[in-house]
Write a structure and sequence with these properties.
Length: 157
């Protein structure tokens, strides 16, 4: 079985989601199914079918989170050091064409969230950044063509 690296914060979010699904969402959907069942003919009961579909999604997500959380390797990013980019690093980049600065943290694939500027260790940009130092240039292929970035800063927070 493969282990998945994850940050402590990412693991906490996965555990919180799993707890919420099991203790809040699952009981609520069971109650909704029971209520919809009381309305009579199930073959034409849209509420019942919608509730069963939601139940299926919740149960699938619970199984997925249980499988992932049982195989994660939690890495304490605050204990990491160094001057090269590796898992857990928060990297500030500048787009060499547009001069736009961005900051990303390299995290596990199951905790990545672009809204929080967290990119998966398996993402093309993250793979290109691994092993780079401040001042290095990185070439990344994107759907719109190649992009060049310069590494401005590397932190482990």
């Amino acid at each position: 079985m493969d282990k998945f690296p994850t940050t402590a914060a990412g693991f906490k979010r996965m555990e919180a989601e799993l707890k919420n699904l099991k203790s809040v969402e699952r009981p609520a959907i069971i109650a909704a199914i029971s209520e919809a069942r009381a309305h009579g003919d199930l073959s034409e009961n849209a509420e019942y079918h919608a509730a069963k579909e939601k139940q299926s999604f919740i149960e699938g997500r619970i199984k997925e989170l249980e499988a992932v959380t049982s195989r994660v390797e939690v890495i304490d990013v605050a204990a990491l050091k160094g001057d090269t980019v590796k898992f857990g690093a928060t990297v500030t980049l500048i787009d060499e064409d547009s001069e736009e600065k961005t900051t990303y943290q390299i995290v596990g694939e199951y905790e990545a969230d672009i809204k929080r500027n967290e990119i998966s260790i398996t993402a093309p940009l993250a793979r290109a950044l691994i092993g780079k130092k401040t001042g290095d240039s990185v070439e990344v292929r994107t759907p719109k063509g190649g992009k060049s970035y310069e590494v401005l800063a590397i932190k482990f927070v």
